[in-house]
TrEMBL record:
Cofactor: S-adenosyl-L-methionine; Mg(2+); [4Fe-4S] cluster
Function: Catalyzes the complex heterocyclic radical-mediated conversion of 6-carboxy-5,6,7,8-tetrahydropterin (CPH4) to 7-carboxy-7-deazaguanine (CDG), a step common to the biosynthetic pathways of all 7-deazapurine-containing compounds.
Source organism per UniProt: Algisphaera agarilytica
The protein's name: 7-carboxy-7-deazaguanine synthase
UniProt subunit comment: Homodimer.
Keywords: 4Fe-4S, Iron, Iron-sulfur, Lyase, Magnesium, Metal-binding, Queuosine biosynthesis, S-adenosyl-L-methionine
Length: 293
């Protein structure tokens, strides 16, 4: 006799953080997005910026996660404050909130230069949507926990556009077909290239995206070889390329000096590669070490 399927209340995941922010990467960059960061990763990339997700995080039921995904954007329409502006910036995000202006729902408050005159519903193009319809599942490595699959299916069923950010070291073929997979191919400079699951290439489709994070010219040449060999740009929506932030000699992380984005841009222009150069937008907006943004 087969066991009855477990309910969303009975199934759990180890969650590091859930937050609402501006999507900083991929072709969805710039859009409002809810992030669900899962705990744990079996890789140790030289440049990892989310080591805090390796061991920090609590168990949550899938239903509690879905409820939080619904509530973080609905109850927090203002930009995330946790990180504060990027240090050294003026914090000039264009909209200034005066003290006491936090509650924009008050119907009789007279609009001033500092208070938007339209309500959130009036501003939104989708006026029936009170929460955000773009959700990214990230980590860590989110595919390490098998209950990520019923979570993604439930989010798709609820009408969300679901992105998953994965290292490329786990099988992506088992994801709900509605999920858009943003898959890293780990370069030699990451120290984890031997973990790439090359069977994943055959499962990529025209909605997915492939990402290369480059640490050096050697990584760049390795990427060109993979593009040629696997015709990646013909398989997916976009091939994304970014440079690990360059540091001064002596400040290397695990021997990784990083790569100048200016230098990388020059190579891409020279070689006319069919790839999309990326920065991490959220690290330009907020402090690069801030969490929850
Ligand atoms: N704003 C924002 N955008 C992101 N895109 C991918 C992220 C990740 O950590 O996987 C990320 C993140 O941590 N924050
Ligand atoms: S796969 Fe991602 S989370 Fe894991 S070590 Fe590499 S960069 Fe960090
Ligand atoms: Mg990140």
């Amino acid at each position: 006799m087969t066991k009855p399927a477990k309910s969303l209340d009975e199934q759990t995941l180890l969650i590091n953080e859930i937050f609402y922010s501006v999507q900083g990467e991929s072709t969805y960059a710039g859009l409002p997005c809810v992030f669900v960061r899962l705990r744990g990763c079996h890789l140790r990339c030289a440049y990892c910026d989310t080591e805090y997700a390796f061991h920090e995080g609590e168990k949550q039921s899938l239903q509690a996660i879905i409820d939080e995904v619904e509530s973080v954007s609905a109850t927090n329409p203002s930009p995330p404050g946790g990180g504060g502006p990027r240090s050294g910036s003026e914090g000039d995000v264009g909209v200034v909130m005066a003290a006491g202006d936090e509650d924009q729902s008050e119907p009789n408050s007279a609009p001033t230069a500092l208070t938007p005159s339209l309500s959130r519903g009036e501003r939104g193009l989708n006026q029936t949507q009170s929460s955000c319809d773009l959700v990214e599942i990230t980590g860590g490595e989110p595919l390490l926990q098998r209950n990520v699959h019923p979570l993604m299916t439930a989010l798709c069923d609820a009408g969300k556009t679901v992105l998953i950010e994965t290292s490329g070291a786990c099988d992506i073929s088992v994801c709900d077909p509605r999920v858009i997979r943003i898959m890293d191919l780990k370069t030699p400079g990451s120290g984890e290239a031997h973990r790439n699951d090359w069977n994943n290439i055959a499962h990529l489709n025209e909605r997915d995206e492939v990402k290369f994070v480059l640490t050096s010219r050697g990584d760049y040449e390795w990427m060109v070889k993979q593009l040629e060999e696997h015709r990646l740009h013909e398989r997916v929506n976009a091939v994304l390329v970014s440079a690990v932030h360059k540091v001064e000699p002596g400040k290397e992380i695990a021997g990784c000096l990083g790569l100048s984005i200016t230098e990388l841009a020059g190579w891409l222009l020279q070689d006319r590669l069919p790839v999309r150069l990326q920065t991490q937008l959220h690290k330009l907006i907020w402090d690069p070490s801030a969490r929850g943004v």
